[in-house]
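quick one
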Amino acid sequence: MRGLDVFSLELDGLCVSYGKVPVLHDVSLKVTKGQVVTIIGANGAGKSTVMKVVMGLHKATSGSVRLFGKDVLGKSPDQLTPLGMTLVPEGRRLFAPMTVRENLEMGAYRRTSAPEVQADFEKVLEFFPDLKPKLDLTAGSLSGGQQQMVAVARALMTSPKVMLLDEPTIGLAPAVVDVIAGVIRQVSNDGVDVLLVEQNAEMALEISDYGYVLEQGRIVLEAPASELASNPEVQKAYLGI
Ligand SMILES: Nc1ncnc2c1ncn2[C@@H]1O[C@H](COP(=O)(O)OP(=O)(O)OP(=O)(O)O)[C@@H](O)[C@H]1O
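structure w/ adenosine-5'-triphosphate:
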């Protein structure tokens, strides 16, 4: 019933190159309001490139990106954050010498309402109680799993309406993967729309409402996540079944 849905994020006909090498070909996808949408695909399929272009970190050759119906292609991350978009980048990109608290404050640095920032600070610590005793430690001293929690928490401190997550569970222990997956669902229930890029297709399809399969820079399949999870080709290529 996607025809009747309201979309928060719409990519249409995106073509992207690195130098002269084309890596995305006519990529179109939509994030429905109230949903978690995932892009699954192999190494090098172009998943991170989609995220970088949407977040204004790399230019597209052609196509469009609309956020709540407004064309935002070419805007910088600094312009997109106040419009409600945030990215949890691959590799976390924390400020390693700064404390966990300072990293979280950096997420909120543009916001002006101290009570709202404080409420979100308390909320992210409810999402990630493991971070409570670590607030005054440097981010770089934390385990990989805790650092990923800080990266997600920092993104939430921007008060996003749409959150992009690029491989948030890569290299993490199963227990931490469960925590991150649970928070993504809760965040979605709280009204943040999510675009999730994952190599862990099993987890991604489990927590997502809708999914796209990206192969060699092209969307080759799209369907509700439960349908993708039971598609024999997807099972063979991405779920190891
Ligand atoms: N900065 C860059 N310069 C040149 N080529 C790049 C650059 N970044 C990525 N590529 C190439 O673009 C293609 C898509 O890469 P991208 O990182 O978007 O894929 P991915 O699906 O996210 O893969 P991974 O899961 O390994 O991160 C790959 O062939 C990659 O080698």
